[in-house]
Design a protein that fits this description.
Layout (H helix, E strand, L loop, with lengths): L21 H28 L6 H26 L4 H24 L5 H30 L3 H33 L1 H22 L14 H17 L3 H26 L10 H7 L2 H19 L2 H15 L1 H5 L3 H29 L5 H12 L2 H16 L1 H22 L2 H6 L11
């Protein structure tokens, strides 16, 4: 991808052992702070919600609200990210997110926080996440290059920071803040997001807008809007990966919609307190950190697709721990396994698309992909809540690994490593001068 900022020698493609550069460091810092707020909100808001309702349907609606913006906004946001300055897009999206959290804090202080306010917060937060995440992902190749080695190292570091902030620090902090009160939870998160905006605005200078041709006619604008989905749907690697990932996430979000009802509260099967639940969630980033350390070595030793299939399949099986052993220890066992398996799988999938898609289409193809991958998640949350209401939460916990294993089998059969290698684009040429 061509960006209007100049990359340092340390960040040129092919610099496999040199530092990734100060601009990437600023990007990494902003992503870390944003994910710290995410970790607090993602755990804290559902914990607040179960004090307002014990309805599986309403919990499903809340979970669906987080992911619905990907279904609605993913494609147009991807097009806009490919036309806008990606650094500025992240700054604006995170700024709006801070404002939303601040407004929720005011409502909490005035004792006007309801389940529907939380649903509205989740929807607005999700919209900012669409733009911020697409811009952040499309930004990485401009900072470190598009060759496999630097991309994998950058993705490993991003995932490590995300897991430390989102999973290791965020959940226990959320438990403490929930005990202090809703205003502390959302207000503190707002301040952390403001910190992310400042790091990005002050630490990453220059313009990061891809060079794209001007679109003038309505027909060409429509073509641009749909080009990401066309590219994705006709690609023999990206299409089956996106469909399978969508099925996998459908099942995962069905689980998320009912997990707190299954484990938290005196009337639940697990009987955990919010603080103990939050503490057990630390097991996820502990495993994820291990995964981020070994990811590159595992991928270098085995083929990418065999690693991805193994991670997805094992992860699906470990979901059964929540049904068999509904306790803090069962949750910790599941998360300790899910952490490294999820990170290694994400490093694989995150490094594939930039090698198969040209730089000026990364945003729109990423948006189209996430419409399928993340767009299935609100449906999964609603279905999970409905199934739990009709047949009980154990029915959801049993069905989740079955769907995940079916999705894994689709990838194992339909996307061999040779197919990925055959469609890899040549890396960007070295800049001259």
């Amino acid at each position: 991808m061509t960006a209007s900022t100049t990359r340092s020698a340390a960040t040129q493609p092919g610099a496999a052992t040199t530092p990734l550069g100060r601009p990437f460091g600023a990007h990494l810092g902003a992503v870390g702070l944003a994910n710290l707020a995410d970790g607090v909100v993602q755990i804290g808001v559902p914990l607040l919600a179960v004090t307002l309702t014990r309805s599986p349907l309403l919990m499903g609606v809340l979970t669906a609200a987080v992911w619905l913006p990907w279904l609605v906004c993913g494609i147009p946001a991807g097009v806009l990210v490919d036309r806008w300055d990606r650094r500025r897009t992240m700054v604006v999206a995170l700024g709006v997110r801070a404002a939303l959290l601040g407004a929720a804090g005011v409502l909490a202080l005035s004792d006007r926080l309801t389940i529907w306010v939380l649903v509205g917060l989740a929807l607005g937060y999700g919209v900012t996440e669409v733009f911020a995440d697409l811009a952040a992902a499309a930004q990485v190749p401009a900072l470190v290059g598009r060759t496999a080695g630097p991309l994998r190292r950058a993705n490993s570091r991003l995932l490590a920071v995300e897991q430390v902030c989102n999973g290791f620090v965020g959940p226990p902090l959320a438990g403490v803040l929930v005990a202090l009160g809703a205003a502390w939870l959302v207000g503190s998160s707002a301040l952390v997001v403001v910190g992310a905006v400042l790091v990005l605005a002050l630490g990453l200078r220059g313009r990061y807008a891809p060079v794209v041709p001007e679109v003038e006619s309505v027909g060409s604008r429509w073509s641009e809007l749909t080009s990401g989905m066309r590219t994705l749907w006709t690609h023999p690697v990206l299409r089956p990966l996106a469909i399978a990932a969508g099925l996998w996430n459908f099942a995962s979000t069905a689980l998320s919609a009912v997990l707190i009802l299954w484990l938290v509260g005196p009337e639940s099967e697990g009987g955990l307190s919010p603080q103990l639940f939050s503490l057990a969630m630390v097991a996820l980033p502990v495993g994820a950190l291990l995964g981020s350390v070994v990811a590159s070595r595992v991928i270098e030793r085995f083929s990418e697709m065999s690693v991805l299939v193994a991670c997805w399949g094992l992860n699906a099986v470990f979901n059964l721990a929540l049904l068999i052993w509904p306790s803090a220890w069962g949750l910790a066992l599941f998360l300790l396994a899910a952490g490294p398996l999820g990170v290694i799988g994400n490093v694989v999938s995150g490094s594939i698309r930039p090698r198969l898609v040209s730089g000026d289409q990364l945003g729109r193809v990423g948006g189209a992909s996430r419409v399928l991958v993340f767009g299935a998640m609100p449906l999964g949350a609603l279905v999970g809540g409905q199934v739990a209401a009709l047949f009980g939460i154990p029915a959801v916990l049993l069905g989740v690994p079955v769907v995940m294993l079916l999705a894994t089998a689709m990838v194992a059969v339909g996307v061999p490593q040779a197919l990925v290698d055959a469609h890899e684009l040549a890396p960007d040429p070295e800049p001259v001068g």
